[in-house]
Amino acid sequence: MRILITGGAGFIGSHIVDACLAAGHTPAVVDDLSSGSPKNLPASVPLYQIDIRDRAALAKAFSEFQPEAVSHQAAQMSVSRSVRDPIFDAEVNVLGLVNVFDEASRVGAKRIVFASSGGVLYGDVYTPAPEETPANPISPYGISKWVGEKYLEFYARERGLTGVALRYANVYGPRQNPHGEAGVMAIFSQRLLAGEPATVNGDGKYDRDYVYGPDVARANLLALTQPLETHFLALNIGTGQRTDVNQLEQLVRQEATAIWQQGGQTGSPPEPKHGPARAGDLRSSIVDASLAATKLGWQPTVAFAEGVQRTVQWFAEHA
Ligand SMILES: NC(=O)c1ccc[n+]([C@@H]2O[C@H](COP(=O)([O-])OP(=O)(O)OC[C@H]3O[C@@H](n4cnc5c(N)ncnc54)[C@H](O)[C@@H]3O)[C@@H](O)[C@H]2O)c1
């Protein structure tokens, strides 16, 4: 199948490219490289370096590649930027998204999968939240994910295609960008391996559901290719397990210490510093992914400790 992945040069998108190739599909990527990198992609995969806000360029790429299915990962993905600049957020995450969905339907793609977010839709939840949890997004980023799902439902209903919104929990793993404000594991890995302390916001008691990037890519592959009975589905993608930032920092530090020792370096990375709490940070965000098991046959396969080990190792090799 010809599968177009927007944001495919980024963290999750590039793992989706790998999953598509491994399953024998033909992927291509649309990405403006604002946070992604061609280094995340095999040279054989066509890369259209396009901003999804540029309708004409997007139309040209869709006409040329003629995707049968589209995985829409490209986004402005900073919650705080969305609060500072709601117009830019809406230009990329709403208008850019409509450009992508409209082009997909114009060229006759039969399936669109969209990267939504459980965390920003459900708010503070102390037990794993199912999909029926009322959506109450409070940031422009969260609002754009909710609106994106509604647009997908509209395109699916009106244009004879199937739409799947995957509501990710906190995704982590190799290739995550450590330079932004999201991606706490990537940021901690880089700092600790370099012998700098991690900064834990507030008391660090912020529970999150961490799901491994290649597992999320497999959920995308299934959502892109499996037969589905309904025109639109929203599915949580997470583990239902909680880890707070203090526990995460400790695990990353353990792995970084082991890597230092393997390299003959003595000592261990420093203890964390505590910074001020970040306004608006949820205390707890965990999703229930049992519907994805029923509808797609998807389950996470990489346990957290194993995923942390692989991630820190990757950052050590790519420092
Ligand atoms: N990482 C997470 O924990 C998480 C959680 C929930 C949802 N998501 C969603 O998953 C998707 C992928 O996130 P990621 O973590 O891989 O981030 P990422 O920054 O690594 O990937 C996003 C990609 O989109 C590209 N992009 C950004 N703006 C673009 C534009 N205007 N035109 C074309 N390309 C553009 C970037 O260059 C990048 O390659 C996003 O939609 C994000 O909102 C991620």
Q: Which features does this protein show?
A:
319 residues; binds nicotinamide-adenine-dinucleotide; Rossmann fold; 43% helix; alpha/beta; seven-stranded parallel β-sheet
Overall description:
By secondary structure, the chain is α/β, with parallel strands linked by helices. The protein has a domain at 2-173 and 211-242 and 285-302: 3-Layer(aba) Sandwich (Rossmann fold). 43% of the residues lie in helices and 17% in strands. The chain has eleven helices and 13 strands. It has helices at residues 11-22, 55-65, 79-84, 86-106, 118-122, 140-159, 184-193, 213-225, 245-262, 290-296, 304-317; strands spanning 2-6, 26-31, 47-49, 69-72, 111-117, 162-168, 170-172, 199-201, 207-208, 210-212, 232-237, 273-275, 284-285. β1 (2-6), α1 and β2 form a beta-alpha-beta unit. The two termini are 35 Å apart. 51% of the residues are buried. The mean pLDDT is 97. Nicotinamide-adenine-dinucleotide is lined by residues 7, 9-13, 31-36, 51-53, 73-77, 92, 96, 115, 117, 168, 170-171, 177. Nicotinamide-adenine-dinucleotide (NAD) binds next to α1, α4, β5 and β7.
Cα Rg:
19 Å
Instruction: Report the order of strands and helices.
Output: EHEEHEHHEHHEEHEEEHEHEEHH
State the CATH superfamily name of the domain at 2-173 and 211-242 and 285-302.
NAD(P)-binding Rossmann-like Domain
* DSSP, total strands: 13
Q: What class, by secondary structure content?
A: alpha/beta
Largest sheet, spatial ordering of strands = 3-2-1-4-5-6-11
* Shape by Cα distribution: globular
Any idea of the CATH class of the domain at 2-173 and 211-242 and 285-302?
Answer: Alpha Beta
Portion in helices: 40-55%
- The poorly predicted ranges are none
Count of alpha/pi helices: 11
Q: The CATH topology of the domain at 2-173 and 211-242 and 285-302, please?
A: Rossmann fold
Terminal residue distance = 35 Å
